[in-house]
Amino acid sequence: MNKFELKNLKNNATKNEKRKAFFRTLIKPVQAGANGTLNYVVKKGSGKNKIASKK
Could you read off the pLDDT of 1-55 as tens digits, one per residue? Predict the structure, then answer.
């Protein structure tokens, strides 16, 4: 491996790290219960109108 190849490998590695960091900043956090999945109320059956739990 010569100096030119080594320099290119180093530059590509830094570019990839910058790209990954940029895309990580674009990811937005998810809110728990945003679509009604938290504190779900049972609509049918013996436990009607009760909040479902993870038991």
Answer: 799 999 999 999 999 999 999 998 888 877 766 676 677 788 888 888 888 776 5
Write down the H helix ranges in the chain: 3-26
Is 49 inside any structural domain? no
In the block, residue with structure tokens 């910058």: 18
Q: State how many domains the chain has.
A: 1
pTM for this entry: 0.45
Does residue 16 form part of some domain? yes
Structure tokens at 45: 């059956």
Domain that holds residue 19: 1-29
Q: What share of the chain is helix, strand, coil (3-state, %, to 5)?
A: 45, 5, 55
